[in-house]
Structure formats: structure tokens, C-alpha cells
Amino acid sequence: MDEGYLARLGTLLEQYDVPAAFWVNIQLTFWAGLLALALGTVLAVMRISPVASLRALGAGYVTVLRNTPLTIILVFCTLGLWGQLGVTLSSDFTSNFFRLAVLGLAVYHAAFVCEALRSGVNTVPVGQAEAARALGLRFSQSARLVILPQAFRGAVAPLGNVLIALIKNSTVAAVASVAETSGLMRQMIEFRPDVVLGIFLVFALGYVVVVVPVGLATTALSRRLAVAR
Amino acid sequence: MASPPPGPPPPDTTVGGTVPSAPTTADDVPRPAAAPASRSPVGAPLVVLRGVQKHFGALHVLKDVDLSIGRGEVVVLVGPSGSGKSTLCRTINRLETIDEGTITIDGAPLPEEGRALARLRADVGMVFQSFNLFAHRTVLENVTLGPTKAKGVKPAAAKARAQELLARVGVADQAGKLPGQLSGGQQQRVAIARALAMDPKVMLFDEPTSALDPEMINEVLDVMTALAADGMTMLVVTHEMGFARRAAHRVVFMDRGQVVEQAEPEQFFAAPRSDRARDFLSKILTH
Predict the structure, then answer these.
(1) Mutation choice for A interface testing from B136, B190, B202 by most A CBs within 10 A
(2) ipTM of the complex
(3) Domain range spanning residue A143?
(4) pLDDT of B10 over the 90 cut
(5) Domain count of the fold of chain A
(6) Of B122, B134, B195, the CB nearest to A128
């Protein structure tokens, strides 16, 4: 590595706004994570509900979405939903693609959120549900007031894993024409292939900086929220 | 402990259930009038099981069970493990479904799963072997959750009533703690308070002291004895024969899914009529 290498990399980083690209990924993660959490919770409730058709629907969703590659889902969201079916989520061209990417990321990760929550439900002893039913609470009340609050606490660690996967998977939004880190990295490499290793290390380090705190936080949170029995 | 008989004799004579499949018992169940004066009077049948059958796969766990529990009556259900007594207890609020037969509470048959069943369960208190307090909620919240959410009681009223009930079972000072911070005996007393907060017509106790350390059993039994003396209708599955002697109007002995014998406690413990009951008692009372 000659002396000019760092200088060239430094110049390149001045020309391209790497933090802004990371900010796009964080925004993608935030909105997709929020949607996935909501949808995944609904799916988890469906999967534990006493209604057989709802259980089947929930299981079917998880089977299909979990086993479809994310790239294909995101390509479908842009070329299929927007290109073919004309679905627009915003009149602004850029934010339309951003929202389509959020949608694709959310529906995909909702399947994983559902399964993480279901593992949380399995940490709740069956007696908790029996006690809730014996008190006269309906299924929806039992789920909302007794089962899910405890299931979320038992699912913090697996939900953290889903979040970490989501942060990194948000780079797939590049295929939905969202200007985010992996797209920027490709542009930078095309512009300055001589510092490809340096560019790669900058982005890798960036993701480590974003993801490591999430892992630490969820581990700490899962300890603090653990239900004493 | 005998005191002069207060008030009029109990009016009703239809307490004992008939057991067609077990000829040893016929219809000679002792009348409530014969019960000691310390026991509350027994009224018309409140919980009635007729011809109840249940299978767990190939296992026939309840064989044509008939049982009737009068209003204000305390029935203690005993029997060897695996005899179906817990299952029977759990069928009454439909935590276990039955294959055949009918169960009525206050004349109304048990509804199918849904809102009507939830309403009925609100009237049937249940105390579990493993307490099953809501682990993420405080003791006070455990007691107020049912009334506020299932019966629409105002939070302030539910809280006042909960504090009164917690005081009655002797854990008023634990109201702000989480269940995990309490001893087993305290947790079970909170569970009783939680069930009482719904003002149930009948209370089901499914081996309430079986998971407790020996020194905590009595604090729970004392609460149950007081409840019985207050006239609560109770079905109690237990191995505590002292409680049965002290508080029960009637002991029902089950074996292999059948009601084999039922009698007043004094008679059941002194002179069981069936061989199976004699055999059972000889195993548990010799030490």
C-alpha cells in the first residue's frame, strides 16, 4: 500500500457522501422494521389463534415469504407492482421506489418476525393462557394482555437477530433503484477501481459500527426484560 | 369445634349425584342436613354433570361420570393419580372438552368456544396447581385484570376490591410485587384472590397445594377453609385429607375415570364401602 493510497481514498470519500447512504439504509431499516413488527405480530397471533383457517393463512404466508429470495421480492415490488401493475406509493419518483423497497423488506421480514415471536410464545407456560381463559378473557384479550407481552420479552434476542438481518438486507434495496450503500459502493468502485479494497473496508466497517450496538443492546434488553418465574 | 346449629336446616335434599355405573353408591348419599353445623347450608344443584365421557386418544379418562354440586356445597374429589379427577375438574369450565354427556352450571349448558364461554368462565373461579399468576404483572394487577377486562369494572373499584381480597388472604403487603418475588404459598393465595375478584358462583381447585412446600400448605388450606365456611360452592381436587374432613360436605372418590364412591367425610374415612376406596385410603393414611 503506497503512500498515495490513503490520499486517493480520502479524496474519493470527499466526493461521495457515504454517511448519507448509510442514513438511507437506516431509514429503510426503520420503516421496514416497524411495518414488519406490526405485520409479524398479526401473523403470530393468527398462527396461535383457535381459528384453523387463520392458522393456515398465517402458516402459508410464512412458508411462501420466508422461502422466497429477498432480491426476487424487491424486484417484484418494483418491476411487478410498479412497472406492471402501476402501483405507486408516492408521486415523487425517488420516494416511490423507497417506499416500494420498504414494502418488500417489510413483507419478507414479517415472516421472520412472526417466527421469532412464535418462539417467544413458546417460552410462555401454557398455564398462563389457561389462567387467562379461566378468568373469562376472550382469545384477543388473552393474547394482548397476557401472552404477547410475555412472548415479546422472551423473543427480544431472536427479534434482535431479525433486526440485524434486516439492516444488512436493506442493501438489497439497490435492486429497487434506491440510492443506498451497496449502490454507492458499486459506483465508487467503478469510478476508482484502484482503491477497491479501501472502499470495501470503509463500508464493512460502517456496517460493523451500525450493527454491533444493535446486538449488544438486544442482548442487554433480553436480560433486563426476562420474566422472572 | 361443634357449635349449636344456627338457623333453619338446609331445605334441599337433591345434593348427592346418582352414579348408575357404580352400584356400590346407589342414591344413598348423605343428606346435607346430616352435615355438621359448622358447615354452611347446601342449596339446589348448581353444577350438574350427566353421563360425561372423555378420551385422551385410546385412554378412556372419564367413564360416564355423573356429579352434582349444590349451591354452597364443598365437594372434595380424591383418588389415585391418573384417576381423572383433575380432568373432571377442568371440564367444568371447559379447559378440557368432553366427548359425550352434558355439563350445566346454574341450569345453563356449557357453551361452545367463544364469547358465551368466556362469560361463563368469568363466573367459575379456578385455582391451579402451579398458581399460573401472570408473571409480567404485579400482584395487584393480577387481581384487577379479570374484573376490569372481562366484566368492565371501573379500575378504581376493581383496585379497592382487590386490596380488600388481598388483605383477606393475608398478602396485602405484597400488592406491588411481581409473582416471582413471592413464596409459593403467597402466590397461591393471590391466585385465590384473583379468582374471587370475579365473584364466581363456584370455585374449582385443581390440586392447589400439591406444588407447595409443606410449611406453606396450611396457609393456603386455611384460606380455603374460611372460604368454605363463608358458603362458597367449591370443588376441590386434593390429597389433603385433613381439609376434606374439616371443610367438605361430601367426599367423592374417583378411580380409573369413574366415580366409585361418594359419602360424607366422616363416613368415607371411617368406613369406606368400596374395596378400591379402602385400598386407596390404606395407602395414604398409614403414615
Answers:
(1) B136
(2) 0.82
(3) 21-225
(4) no
(5) 1
(6) B134
